[in-house]
Amino acid sequence: MAFTQALVAELEILALFNLGNVQEEGIKVHHDAAPEVVAAARRLHDKGLISRPDGGYLTSLGLDAAEQAQSLLTILSGPR
Question: How far is C-alpha 40 from the geometric centre of its chain's CA atoms?
Answer without folding.
Answer: 8
